[in-house]
Each structure stands twice: as structure tokens, then as C-alpha cells.
Write a structure and sequence with these properties.
There is one protein chain. This protein is an alpha/beta fold and 165 residues long. It has a single domain (5-160), classed as Uracil-DNA Glycosylase, subunit E (3-Layer(aba) Sandwich). The protein has helices at residues 29-34, 45-52, 61-70, 101-104, 117-126, 128-131, 150-157, 159-162, and strands at residues 5-7, 20-24, 73-77, 79-83, 93-97, 111-115, 136-138. It has a 4-stranded parallel beta sheet. Strands 1-4-5 form a 3-stranded antiparallel beta sheet, with helices on one face.
Length: 165
């Protein structure tokens, strides 16, 4: 049986004040349903970044958008379309990547971060040479990355704050 190609269903989020770009791999089923980033309730992204910036955890999509704007964070994903089983990064194949030049040519991004090894793999393989920018790999906030406690994630992710101050 051949897997169906799944296309990323929502656009990047950035504005003229964005200073860092955080790239995930591909949105989970929950994120695709919500049409917004890191929508799975067990994903620790929002808890980690809100703690790093000493802010309250945003709950609604509007609160999340405001949080990102306030802290100079742009979000997007490396993968534009792929074959994927559910939300499993390890099942991803037949990848087409997003064009992040649109963001990099529009706003002054100081640093690019990738959320986890899958995002790093496809960034290095398919994007790095095109945009002539390296990315810093941070440990995945996915619940599948159980080896990393929330405290370890917060400590590792604290480097993002240095780029927006």
C-alpha cells in the first residue's frame, strides 16, 4: 500500500520584528487539525519557550501568536509535503521542503533553530546550501523525546533568548 502525500496546511508565522526562526519538521495530526504549530497537548514547545521568556503559557492560538510576536519568534517547518504515518517523524519519506527564503529576505532573522533531529536532517540536506545559513539544533519538544525532561529542555532552549534581546 502506498502512503498518501500530506501537504503542510498552514503558512509560516512571522512579522517585521521577528529575530529568530524556529523550524519544526512537519506538523502533527493535532497541529494540522488546529491549523497551528505545536497543537498536540503533550508537545512541550509552548511550556518550554514561555518558561525561557519568563512568560505565561499561551493557550489559545491568538495568545500563541501574540506570544511569538512579543518575543520576536518566527515559526515554520522544514517540510512542505511528505508521506507520513500519523505524526511519526521516523516514518517521513518523499520530502519536499518549504522555501524559507521568503522569511529570510523579508525580516532580519539573527539565528535559525531547528526543533529536533528530523528537522535538522532535512534542513542540512535540503536547505542549508540554498539559504547559506546554518541552523542550531535544539532537542525536540515532542513527547516522543522522553529522554529529555522539561527542565533539561528549558536549559537547552534558553539559547534562543540570547538572540532576541
Amino acid at each position: 500500500m502506498q502512503n498518501k502525500v500530506t501537504v503542510h496546511p498552514f503558512p509560516p508565522l512571522y512579522d517585521e520584528n521577528s529575530k529568530i526562526l524556529i523550524l519544526g519538521s512537519f506538523p502533527s495530526i493535532k497541529s494540522r487539525e488546529q491549523m497551528f504549530f505545536y497543537g498536540h497537548p503533550q508537545n512541550r514547545f509552548w511550556k518550554v519557550v514561555s518558561t525561557v521568556f519568563d512568560d505565561k503559557i499561551p493557550c489559545s492560538i491568538e495568545e500563541k501568536k501574540e506570544f511569538l510576536r512579543l518575543h520576536g519568534i518566527a515559526l515554520w517547518d522544514v517540510i512542505a509535503s511528505c508521506e507520513i504515518d500519523g505524526s511519526s517523524d521516523s516514518s517521513i519519506k518523499n520530502v519536499k521542503v518549504n522555501n524559507i527564503s521568503e522569511i529570510l529576505n523579508t525580516v532580519d532573522i539573527k539565528a535559525i533553530f531547528v526543533n529536533g533531529k528530523t528537522a535538522e536532517k532535512y534542513y542540512k540536506k535540503c536547505m542549508e546550501k540554498t539559504v547559506c545559513r546554518s541552523a542550531i539544533c535544539l532537542p525536540s519538544t515532542s513527547p516522543a523525546n522522553a529522554a529529555w525532561s522539561i527542565d533539561r529542555l528549558i536549559k537547552a532552549w534558553s539559547v534562543i533568548k540570547e538572540q532576541v534581546v
